[in-house]
Each structure stands twice: as C-alpha cells, then as structure tokens.
Amino acid sequence: MNPPEASAQATVDVTMPQMGVSVAEGTVVQWRKRVGEWVQADETICEISTDKIDTEVPAPASGRVLEILVEVEQTVPVGTVLARLATDPGEGKGAPPPEGAAPGEPAPAVTPHPARHYSPVVQRIAAEHGIDLSRVVGTGRDGRVRKQDVLAAVDRPPAVDRPPAIDRPPAIDRPLHSESPYRPETREPGPGQPAAPPPTSNGAARPAVAEPDRPERLSRMRRSIGEHMLRSLRTAAHCTTIVEADFSSIERARRALGLSYLPLVARCTIDALREFPVMNATLEGDTLTRHGDVNLGVAVSLGDEGLIVPVVHRAQELSAEGLGRAIAELGRRARAGELSPDDVRGGTFTITNPGAFGAIAATPIISQPQIAILDLEAVVKRPVVISDESGQDAIAIRPMANLCLSWDHRALDGALAAQFLSAIKRRLEGWDGG
Amino acid sequence: MGELTYLQAISDGLRCEMRADPRVLCMGEDVGVFGGAFKVTDGFIEEFGPDRVMDTPLAESGIVGTAVGAAVVGLRPVCEMQFADFISCAFDQLVNVAGKMHYRQGLAVPITVRLPSGGGFSGGPFHSQNPEAWFMHAPGIKVVAPSTAHDAKGLLISAIRDPNPVCFLEHKYLYRRIRGEVPEPGYTTPLSARVAREGEDLVVIAYGAMVHAALEATQDIEGARIEVLDLRSLVPLDEAAILESVARCSKVVVVDEANATCAAGAQVAALIAEHAFEDLDGPVVRVASPDVPIPFSPTLEQAVLPGAERIGEACRELLAY
Lengths: 434, 321
Fold this sequence. Notes:
The complex is a heterodimer. Chain A is an alpha+beta fold. Chain A is built from 8 helices and 19 strands.
C-alpha cells in the first residue's frame, strides 16, 4: 500500500446551498466540471434547481474536483455534499477555503453515487452515430440508457426521405387551445390551415412540409408545471365564473400613467380582496387560512420553456404604478433566470394575463393551496348597451374584457365568487385614479 | 428411421459406425451381455460379438488405458463410463496419457469416452455430476455435449471419426425424455454451436439438458425475443458463434448445470468479456449449480440444479437492466 500522499492537500466540500428560508432540497441539473478538472473559486461548478428556480453553485475554493457525489437529476437536502475539491497549495492560484465553506461542519451522510454510466455497446453506437447520450431517454433500470434506447435515437433523426407524414393525426398538431395560464405554443400550420402570423419572439418562417416525429422528454420545467397543474386539478373543486367589464376608465388611466392593463387590474383586485378577505386565503386539508397580506402571484410566460409565477409580496402596499414596476421587475428577473426561491413562494392569490394573445375566455387552474385565480383576457372593442343618467339606453362601442375567475368550490360558493368578481368590475369601471 | 429417443439415437450412431468401420469397438462395465446400464448397447454383443463389445472389470483406469493402447495400434474404441462421475478413476489415462500422446510422441489416440452425466433424477453426489470442465482444462481432449437426438447421433459419429480423444457427454435426464427425427444412415454433426432459437434482445448460452431448460424458460417472456445458443461442442468452443450472438443481442445469460466455479460457462463468460466488450449492454450473467455436491433429496436437488424458473428470472432481470 502506498502511503497517502494527500497530507499537503486539503479537501473542501461543495454543498447544496441554502437558497431561501423555505427551501429544503435541490436537484443537480448539470455538472459544469468533471472529476479531475480545475475550478477557480467562485466559478460555477454545477447548476441546480429547486422547485422552479434554476441557479448556479459557485466553487467555495479553487481546486481540482476530487469526486462528484451527487449525479444529475438527483434531489438532495440542503447541506448535502455535492462534490469534493482538492485544494493544492502548490498549484499557486488555489486560495484557502473561505470561512463559509466550513469543512468541519458535518454534512448529512450521503452514499457516494456513481456518475451516469453507459454500457460499452451504448457508447459504441452513440460514438458511431454521433448521438449525445445525455439527451437519450433511458428505459432501463433507474433510467439507464439501454441499447434499444440509443438505437431508437439513431433511427429518429434526419430521415429526409420519409413519405409525407399523413400518419400524423391533425388533433395532435393543434394548439392546446388557450387554456390559461398556458401560452399558446408556436406551431407550423397543418395542411389546409392558413399560416397564422408567427408570435413575436419566434418569427422564423418554417417550410410547411411534414417533418418527422420527434419524441422528446419534457423539460424539467414542463414536468414540474404538469405535476402542479394535475395536483391542483385533483385537489380543488374547480369552478369558473366569468364577468365582463367595461375597460373605458382603465383604458384612459392606462394611457395617462403609461402602464399596461395588468397593474391596474391588479390594484382593483387587491382592493376587492380587502373587501372580501375570504378570497385572499389558502386551503390546506380542512384548514382555510385567511391571509393578512395580499401576496399577489403574477403569471409570467417564459416562451417555449414554460411559465413561472413570481409573487409580489405585500402587494396591498403598492400603488398601480408601484405594482407596474414590481411586476415588470419580477418578469425581467424571471426571464433572466434570476428569481430566488422566495420570489415564487407565499402567494395568496394569482392573476394570469394571457389576453395579450387575443383569447377572450379561459378556465385557469388554481395555484395550490390558493383558492382562486383571476384570468384577464383580451380587451376588445364591442358594441354594448349602456344607459345614460336619464335612463336612456344606447348602443356604444366600448373596450370590453372578460374576467374569468376559477375558484375552489370546497372553500366558497358561486355567489361569493360572483360578488367578488363584481367588486373588481365595479372598481375597474369606476377607476378614478385611486 | 423416424423419431428416436436421445438414448436410441446414441445406440443408433454407435451401431452405424460399428457396421461401417470394423476398427470401431465398444467396451465398458456391463456393456456386453447386459447391454449397458442404460441399455445403450442392448443387442450389440449378439450383432458384433464379444470381441467388439467387451465387458470389462470395474476398473475405469483399465478401460481407458486399454482403449488408448488399442487406439495407438489403429483401432477406434468407444469406452462407456457407467456414470460420468466414475471417470475420475481414469483421469490419469485420459488426461496425461491420451491427451498428451500426440504432443509427446506424434501418435493419434482416436478414442471416444461416453460419459452419462447430469442430474435431475435423485442420483446423488456420485451419479449426477457434470465433469466436462475438467477435460476442457486439459489440452489434447475434445469435449462434446449434445442436447438433441439428432445431434446425439451425429456428434457421436463425429467423435468416433475424430483422430483425437473425445469426451462425449450424454445427458441421462434427456435419455428417454427427448425425441427427434434421426436419419437412418450415418452422418456427422460439426463440432460447432447451433442456434436453437433465434432472437435479438438477449441470448441464453447453454448446452446439454440446459438447452431445454433455457428454451422452456424463455419461450414466452413478454416483449422480448430471446435467442438460445446450443454450444454442442465445448472443446473446440465455437467462439465465432458465441460472439456473433452476443453482437446481435448485447445481453447474455450463460447457463451451466455443472458447479459454477470454472465451469464451461465461466470460459464462455471470459471469452465474451474479452472479445465482445463493446457489444455488451449489461453484465454477463451466469446461472449454474452452486459449488456443492448434488443432493439425493429430490427437493434439495431441484433447489441446487438450475431450472427454467431460475433461468427465466435471470433473463427478466437482465432485460430490465
């Protein structure tokens, strides 16, 4: 046996960081460094995700990656050792580990887990066909990539000479409709359908020829959204109530203040929540908790990636302009991937606003454990019957919008939902700059 | 001639060769007047006379030693061990004398040693063994182990015509359980493997009685097409056929009825590990008897011998990997 030569070599643990008071665990998404690679202090060593937030873990010290203990897709508690670095003083640049790295602090015991291994035949086939194995979905034990999985990946791509894809049922090809809070996805038009103008961000024109089918594993975010949505549908007794509101006053205020509709609707909703505090509540099991603060969740579309609902905490303290700024800032951070876990937690009521894409009604899914979600649809000019002060009826052209409220029949009944919606409508229609 | 049992096919092969070639003779304990413990040579002494169907004393070393001498001077003796287990008494004559004769003195030793082997009938530790690996380990000896009636006749004739000493493992469990079409004239079966069933998801490599256990175990594993490769010859080992099956299937279960350590399957597994590494999509899995003597108790014996159930379980495990 050789004597251990590590006497001059200190090791530093890289641990799953605490990223917010309520975060208990995180999932490793990607390792940026491999075993044996050198990493500078504060350089990103791996990417992790908690719930919906992705972030990067900086190396606590400069050193060589000695071992990686938590593999990609594994979820571990905060404080778990993810990797060990060997800091070698002889290597010059290696700074001593900062105090915070606390190698003395006992980490929760984890069993070392081997990195994802591929069998020889899988590696050979992947090399021969240039397949990126990290993108191949494994159907073997614990998600292991088997020979048939990599062969399926080989068979899938280019296939230029395929016959026209008449085997593609048109139903699958259609958008999922405007079911809020999903944003309609960009698709090429099916045969016979006129080419719709491409949504703003994704303008590249695509040929209308049939393309080969490409099964792809859902992204982590899509899976996470799917789980939340299904859980909510299973949990809550969903009902949707719709009122239409005249947005003439809001339209004027919006122009005056240089805001979008959303902060003004949010402000009116907050006031209505103060009038009906039972709506600003969460229901968990048999316990309904009314919340003092209005922590307003605002759905932000991340384009093809999915959707995230950052929360404006203590929204009742903000004016319409303040809400506008807060929502814009959260949206920017959401798209930049800079949200912290606490930015998406603690919501007591949610507003979603897919109306920008022209839909006029939807039945949104409640964000658990909240009891209602308000959906603001497109503001469109419509002929409506109005009555003047002398009671004379007339037909007028007014900017109208539907407010669709999905609510949990376990927590309240339809009358209250309608009253609450009417309270929002009253405020919207009577907006006087408050 | 139509359908024969595995045992009748062995008799038929021996009779064909004795009729065709006057140099061929058979010898062993009770092979003459009694017709052999399992009746393989029943009626032989009447047809060929006591000079070519020789009853011997209970002395296996003497039987093989006599055969070696007869072979060196130009005869083609076929020795019967009453049970394969008793071959250990003739070990030196077979391994050191017969096996090395050509290397030392340039003389061919065309003897065939028939070895009724295998368990499954409560024969206990002295009457149930599968000693083939002993002879695979000794240079100069060929080892064959048919699983069908057709191959039993063809391989026996191939063994008799081979200029080297050949151990012919005939499985007692198959004697009267297996039947098959056997052509009447003499024919030879090559010392190479045979695909008993084609498949592409996994290959079970076996020989002798285990071929039938493997076929039974894998006939309806859901969603998988399982190949069964019958080795037929252990020396020479059909490496090309093994590697071809592994390349196609990428998952391998190797079955031995023999005790696991250093069994024929261990050699097959080593071959695959060395030459088929890049074709593998899972560990090479072995199913064999544990390293214990074969028990008398029928219940214990069934627990020790690999059966269709264990083979099927191993296949399903490996398929899921």
